[in-house]
Amino acid sequence: MLTWPAPQIPQLPGQGGPVRVRDTSTGELVVAAPGPDATLYVCGITPYDATHLGHAATYVAFDLLVRAWLDEGKRVRYASNVTDVDDPLLERAEATGVDWRELAADQTALYLEDMTALGVVPPDVYTGAVESVPDVVAAVRAMVASGTAYVVGAPDAHGQGAADVYADVSADPAFGEVARLDRDAMLALFGERGGDPARPGKRDPLDPLLWRSARPGEPSWDGGDLGHGRPGWHIECAVIARDGIGLPFDVQGGGSDLRFPHHEMSTSHARLLDAGHGARSHVHTGMVGLHGEKMSKSLGNLVLVSRLRADGVDAMAVRLAILDHHYATDWEWTDDVLRAGRARLERWRASVSGNGGPAADATLAEVRAALADDLDAPRALRAVDAWADASLAGDATEVHEGAPGVIARTVNALLGVRL
Length: 419
Ligand code: 5CA
Ligand code: ZN
Known about the structure:
Order of helices and strands: EEEHEHHEHEEHEEHEHEEEHHEHHHH
Helix content: 40-55%
Radius of gyration: 23 Å
Shape: elongated
Largest sheet: 5 strands, parallel
Bound molecules: 5'-O-(N-(L-cysteinyl)-sulfamoyl)adenosine, zinc ion
Strand content: 15-25%
Structural class: alpha/beta
Strand order of the largest sheet: 5-4-3-10-11
Distance between the termini: 30 Å
């Protein structure tokens, strides 16, 4: 799929140090990409009701990681997907009488505009679920052939009925290491988040769907000896990551709502496909809420980035409002949060408008140090606030001619905020 245009990233003096992030599978802070290359897969949108502030916060968080890695001088390979065929998308299309392809295309286009406005660095590899069907078919066939996947049910004499394919979680000794939940918790979340623990004929209630045979009224593709059908959700991300950035890769990212079952399953599928190689670490963003509940398409309690933009809100103020929260915490979107983002943007813009200002080196170093320490954006904002306050007060003992330019480039390159 086409991505959005890449923002210009200004050059900064010097280089950032190693970036540490919290691997949610162990709880440890880790240098997730110790070598010269860094590989990242972030789960993309399911394109209906995109892009709300929760999506935006998640993509801005991983954008900070990409920018910090680039500042370290790494070669970054970043892949993402669009879940452009899946149950909730088909249900929404059915409920609103819109063709599912049209719904997906419209919402994906809106998302690309939102990401462009927010200055998010696009993935190098951007693949839709529909585009990935032939690769998923090949992967599922390989899993059936190797005995790590199996068929449940069979078509009747008229070729009707379900012959769906499931992964056998017991084939993966590392299954469970992403979320580290006990079995009851896994079963409960699996049922809540798109799984089908009660489906008769499965070896384990937790076994996830890989290939869903064609049902009347649903889109389907030729799966060769799998029969006509469509891919399961988790295998899509495993295959797109494998084909996009290779296995194993450094960081599997997404919101904390994807930790189980989605990331548990997709990294397990990756391991089954490639001799035990999945994601080396997992990074999860907190949930953005509205009026006390997780902002979600299914609940409908949404603040859309496109709505804010249409109302004349500067996307950079939205970005600053997001960055005022550490990515790993849950937080609430409120009018005050946006107000603070707008005020900060105005203040920062005013502070860099002159020719000279307080020295910028220590601020650049502090922003780098904050980001290297688990992408601590609120700490980075405080460092820039302190410089802006001093600049606006005009109380620097020595005025440095190029300092406002260095600050503007720092904020642009590392925080993605264009002043
Ligand atoms: N297409 C799948 C992933 S393969 C999906 O979860 N799509 S989504 O549109 O529901 O979400 C897109 C991304 O935004 C995911 O990483 C998800 O974890 C994240 N996300 C969804 N809601 C929120 C929220 N309220 N706060 C923060 N992140 C969120
Ligand atoms: Zn995914």
